[in-house]
Amino acid sequence: xxxxxxxxxxxxxxxxxxxxxxxxxxxxxxxxxxxxxxxxxxxxxxxxxxxxxxxxxxxxxxxxxxxxxxxxxxxxxxxxxxxxxxxxxxxxxxxxxxxxxxxxxxxxxxxxxxxxxxxxxxxxxxxxxxxxxxxxxxxxxxxxxxxxxxxxxxxxxxxxxxxxxxxxxxxxxxxxxxxxxxxxxxxxxxxxxxxxxxxxxxxxxxxxxxxxxxxxxxxxxxxxxxxxxxxxxxxxxxxxxxxxxxxxxxxxxxxxxxxxxxxxxxxxxxxxxxxxxxxxxxxxxxxxxxxxxxxxxxxxxxxxxxxxxxxxxxxxxxxxxxxxxxxxxxxxxxxxxxxxxxxxxxxxxxxxxxxxxxxxxxxxxxxxxxxxxxxxxxxxxxxxxxxxxxxxxxxxxxxxxxxxxxxxxxxxxxxxxxxx
Amino acid sequence: xxxxxxxxxxxxxxxxxxxxxxxxxxxxxxxxxxxxxxxxxxxxxxxxxxxxxxxxxxxxxxxxxxxxxxxxxxxxxxxxxxxxxxxxxxxxxxxxxxxxxxxxxxxxxxxxxxxxxxxxxxxxxxxxxxxxxxxxxxxxxxxxxxxxxxxxxxxxxxxxxxxxxxxxxxxxxxxxxxxxxxxxxxxxxxxxxxxxxxxxxxxxxxxxxxxxxxxxxxxxxxxxxxxxxxxxxxxx
Lengths: 420, 236
Known about the structure:
The structure holds 2 protein chains of 2 kinds. By secondary structure, chain A is an alpha+beta fold. Chain A folds into 3 domains: 9-159, no CATH class; 183-276, Signal transduction histidine kinase, dimerisation/phosphotransfer (DHp) domain (Helix Hairpins), CATH 1.10.287.130; 282-411, Histidine kinase-like ATPase, C-terminal domain (Heat Shock Protein 90), CATH 3.30.565.10. Chain A has helices spanning 9-62, 79-87, 128-159, 161-178, 195-241, 247-273, 286-297, 315-332, 357-362, 381-392; strands at residues 70-72, 96-100, 108-114, 120-126, 282-285, 302-304, 310-313, 338-342, 345-349, 395-400, 406-411. In chain A, the strands form 3 sheets. Chain A has a 5-stranded mixed β-sheet, with helices on one face. Chain B is of the alpha/beta class. Chain B folds into 2 domains: 11-128, Response regulator (Rossmann fold), CATH 3.40.50; 131-233, Winged helix-like DNA-binding domain superfamily/Winged helix DNA-binding domain (Arc Repressor Mutant, subunit A, Orthogonal Bundle), CATH 1.10.10.10. Helices cover 40% and strands 20% of the residues of chain B. In chain B, strands 2-1-3-4-5 form a 5-stranded parallel β-sheet, sandwiched between helices. In chain B, a hairpin with a 4-residue loop joins strand 7 (149-152) and strand 8 (157-160). In chain B, helix 2 (42-51) runs parallel beside helix 3 and helix 6 (169-180) packs across helix 7. The longest helix of chain B is centred in the middle third of the chain and has 16 residues, at 113-128. Chain B is globular. The mean pLDDT of chain B is 82. The interface between A and B is medium-sized, with 32 and 32 residues.
């Protein structure tokens, strides 16, 4: 994956290395090219002047110019050569040169010298050898740079591997912590005391601090719930002994039930948060099971279970989720509440105002019903349902139907299904 | 709603350290027609148990002097009386420890009286059920033999290599369920339904731990685990 990702750090560093290599090669190449060209020109220049001096000497000795030297008038000189000739001081011998790098006569070194009257000796020296060797030089510089890149880029990519590995390890660990594995730590990998080590240590410290905080909170919740259960048990049993005829009995029992449910939800959430829950799998015929569970809630909810599967799951947790969803639908939504089982999916739909926007965005939050004025719930039911779905490896999603009403869907993610 | 009193009251011993729970459970069960004695700690619970043949014991787990699990162990050394554990700790470890100690079932506090009574009734049904209910009485072969294990479905007696094996009523019902269909796999749900009389509301861990105890008594190789399905009795 990381190997193919063009934005991976490895390729960025490799590209950076390649760019640096190219820049250095360009500067050095330019300097070398320039120096070589200068030298070539100087050599051509000297050769031309040498030839002119020889021709001058030949002319003065024999009265005739050598065959490879022209004798021209000023009008016959090429313009740049004539200009250069005019610039020459009289004392310096008056040798003019012009390097013609333009077509059609390119790479010729022209030389001219006045020999009295309107007569000029003109030589042309072929510079193509120098030019060709310069071109060869350029080409070989480019070739060497490319050859170097072929080695340097993979080497740079490889050299980033230890860094990459440490970064990936850090990212993986952070993700594991986020997934609830609170003991996971990056640890000090390697002896390098660099920024990555520093960041790893900081992340580890953060994880430790968070873990301690979380565990304290969980222990507190669990302790509170345990300590509450004992007096609650006495209360529940004693409330059962009150005379049936008294109206106050109903009030007391109702509140005892509410208190009981609240404490059980809290205890369950603290267990779910601690990650202490494990699913106990059974082959569950989902249709009949859900129908049975919904019937036992005594809420008059319609159940449609046409083509339900037999699912390998933990029936007690599924029951918990379904009961909470149905109860929530009746408490915060409006009837009719419909439960539909299709395949491995259970959806609970009501015809009330739908889920509040905050719940759709962030999922269920404890004690945040977003509808305090309507309901009497404490916002734990959906949190419990979500947590239990997590234990089952199922997906619980909340949505609003286009024509109004809340829809909660539990997908038990098709596992190996069997028969009972 | 309290039921009409039974002519011959079933006697129950409740061992519980919390005063309110002890008294309230006693009163509640008495309304359902049980004769209820109470003890406030493990040792006096053990004394009370030794003093008077109870039909059923309800033990709290966290008790002073001798905790419920230790008490259950001690009781199991002497008797096969049905034991119901009652705990404020519902974590897996506590439940498993209680069941391993030989309890037949457990409830987590707080428990509504009707639920408690339903559990008690299911336990007593197992303890007192008529042999004629399960295998056909006219079957000439009422002694089923699996190697050196013999199960007398009329005399309700189990012998291993000729020697009688003491089984609690729950363990006996479980073994009879297996013996009725030797070699076929019985899933936990079905066992929970047939032996414990529970529907989906039951916890299949009680099945696993009862099988564990049964294996200790009749030999570990006799009941095989079929992973993902349940258990079966080896036909031999």
